[in-house]
Amino acid sequence: MSNHALSSAKPAQDLRFLVLAGHGLQTPLSSIRWGVQRLRKTDTKQLSKQQKHLIDSIDGNARTLSRVLSSMLLLARNEEHTYTLGSDDIGLAGFFKQLAQEAKEEGIALAVSVPATLTLTADPHMFSTVMENLLSVFSESASAPKKVKLSASRTGTDIHIVCETAMEFPLLSGDGTQDVNKLVGGTSGLMLSLAHSLVGFLDGDLVMTSLGKDRYKLTVAIPLAD
Amino acid sequence: MASTILIAEDDSFFAETIQLSLEEHGATVKIARNGEEAIEMIDKHQPALLLLDLLMPKKDGFAVLMHVKDKKYSFPIVILSNLSDEMDDERCKELGVKDYYIKSDMDEDELWPKIKKYF
Prior knowledge:
The structure holds 2 protein chains of 2 kinds. Chain A is α+β, with helices and mostly antiparallel strands. Chain A has helices at residues 3-40, 49-80, 92-105, 124-140, 186-202, and strands at 88-91, 109-113, 119-122, 147-155, 158-166, 177-178, 205-212, 215-223. By secondary structure, chain B is of the alpha/beta class. Chain B is 39% helix and 19% strand. Chain B has helices at residues 12-23, 35-44, 61-71, 86-94, 111-115, and strands at residues 4-8, 28-32, 49-52, 77-81, 99-102. A 5-stranded parallel beta sheet of chain B has the order 2-1-3-4-5, with helices on both faces. In chain B, helix 2 runs parallel beside helix 3 (61-71). The chains are: A alpha+beta, B alpha/beta. At the A-B interface, helix 1 and helix 2 of A face helix 1 of B.
């Protein structure tokens, strides 16, 4: 095989590896979740408050990891062309309203601001999955805030989806903006990886801006279809 | 094994969790750790229901499905996998699978309501 063919083949091999590795991680994660769910069924009088909290944390983090992995796998499969993204017009107002209801059931106060007529062309299943995964980071991490502002607007040739909340992670630059590719770790890292999934599916750009006092604005700018 | 559920799953902890969950509902449950073991157990005694993972060592779930089809066994088969490819779902349905569930999309207490109709 020529060097050119080898270098061409490598990204496809990397993707295949990612897909297979991802599937390999999913089952142990599922087993952690199911095992913890069974623990929760234990007579809770036998568990201390700290033990119950630990169980909740393990379950929450396992769910979040599983969802992040799902998003990564879907991205990889899309790149690998084993999954074809659909294309429908999604009414964002109605979609976010439903998301707010689901968030409320999970203990998150999601304040939504979206023009009634704003639509986004995307694969509805993927968009739904990524947005739900984004919220799961807030609901399933004990250290994550429970109040989120979610808005969307059309600005010129883009749709901006903005998520604003209080998050704890250090700013690496002093000018109020953040290179999101440099942020790693913790709840913020998970949120960013999920937001990156959104960007990947919708071919958008991601910017995080400090609003001061540990509040950050995460903006996904999605170009409108021609 | 006329009233037995056979679980073919290579993750031991996950298989045992499913076993405990189903036994709570009165089922008798056996576990096969890979496709080869699953085929051996099926050939000895056909189960009332097979819960089948797809990615397994030695022989995978598709090999098990092909074997069941070749032998013309008639017990119901439900897939429990983390493979979420539509092609895998279609391929399994063509091989006679009753249902296809993604493990990572389910909670532990959702399994019995989904499978009891086949048992």
